[in-house]
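PROTEIN DESIGN WORKSHEET
SECTION A - STRUCTURE
LENGTH: 316
TOKENS:
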């Protein structure tokens, strides 16, 4: 999605014009009628071009390829930087289009959980939620972050986001956390059992948890709980002999009651992602049983929820 990668053909905002005949969304506000038609004629062609020019401009000061490649191993940092790149291009495009059409720039509306109103990006409506959210996030949440930084830092905002980029999806979703430099606090993972080797690990952020909760619990719970994530990570392990894939996961929350709620919701997540789930034991802080991939154990420890999944035998 950088200047070098033929981005115009894959930009969701450019696509959205095709799917919304007679009504379009620029800067988050639908417009109908003759004015919309006039804007549409200029914007369909121009918006993609302005967007690419915005990238080219940024690329002159900050090598966009380096900027995004530097953190490509960290999915949270990487998505946050994509939000800087695409968010700024969206924001600038919106500013140019607004000026041309004599409108004041549409004000961004409220805080949200990263979800997009249905119909804003019609081509994505059929895509799985996780993929859709990850594709749209840099454009929508990134633009809102750029707007928030602009309100505070004016002209400097355009370079600020590159010099001091957000480090998590949470910082992008909540500019106050970006300004406060609130970085994720990663909870310790359960110890690796014997006889396994590590083959993948990573961090999970607010967006990941928001999608998980929306998918397997409810939008309301996602909106309430996901913003209270303090940090999360996971690791995939492989049994040296049996080649089983095992998952260890931990998430820390802003407070114990939220962790408690998430602990209970995690059961719903497991029920949702597996066809069968047999509970062996359940207390206020421990849940064990067997799912599609093998044995699991989830436990609540203060403000941290940990899970081990995919074990051959019951986990102690
Ligand atoms: Zn772009």
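SECTION B - SEQUENCE
RESIDUE ASSIGNMENT:
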């Amino acid at each position: 999605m950088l200047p070098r990668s033929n981005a115009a053909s894959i930009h969701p905002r450019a696509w959205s014009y095709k799917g919304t005949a007679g009504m379009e969304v620029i800067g988050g506000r639908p417009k109908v009628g003759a004015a919309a038609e006039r804007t549409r004629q200029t914007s369909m062609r121009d918006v993609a071009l302005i967007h690419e020019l915005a990238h080219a401009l940024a690329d002159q000061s900050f090598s966009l390829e380096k900027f995004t490649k530097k953190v490509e191993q960290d999915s949270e940092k990487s998505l946050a930087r994509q939000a800087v790149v695409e968010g700024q291009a969206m924001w600038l495009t919106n500013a140019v289009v607004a000026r041309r059409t004599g409108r004041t720039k549409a004000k961004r509306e409220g805080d949200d959980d990263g979800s997009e109103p249905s119909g804003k990006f019609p081509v994505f409506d059929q895509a799985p939620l996780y993929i859709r959210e990850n594709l749209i996030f840099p454009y929508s949440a990134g633009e809102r972050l750029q707007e928030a930084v602009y309100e505070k830092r004016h002209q400097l905002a355009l370079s600020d986001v590159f010099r001091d980029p957000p480090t998590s999806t949470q910082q992008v979703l909540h500019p106050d956390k970006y300004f406060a430099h609130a970085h994720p606090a990663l909870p310790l993972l359960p110890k690796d059992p014997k006889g396994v080797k590590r083959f993948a690990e990573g961090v999970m952020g607010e967006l990941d948890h928001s999608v998980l909760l929306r998918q397997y619990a409810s939008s309301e719970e996602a909106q309430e709980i996901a913003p209270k994530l303090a940090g999360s990570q996971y690791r995939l392990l492989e049994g040296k002999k049996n080649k089983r894939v095992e998952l260890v996961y931990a998430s820390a929350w802003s407070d114990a009651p939220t962790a408690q709620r998430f602990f209970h919701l995690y059961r719903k997540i497991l029920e949702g992602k597996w066809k069968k789930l047999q509970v062996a034991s359940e207390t206020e802080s421990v849940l064990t049983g067997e799912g599609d991939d093998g044995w699991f154990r989830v436990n609540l420890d203060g403000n941290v929820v940990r899970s081990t999944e995919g074990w051959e035998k019951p986990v102690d």
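SECTION C - NOTES
Confidence is low (pLDDT under 50) at residues 1-32, 108-114.
The longest helix spans residues 34-61.
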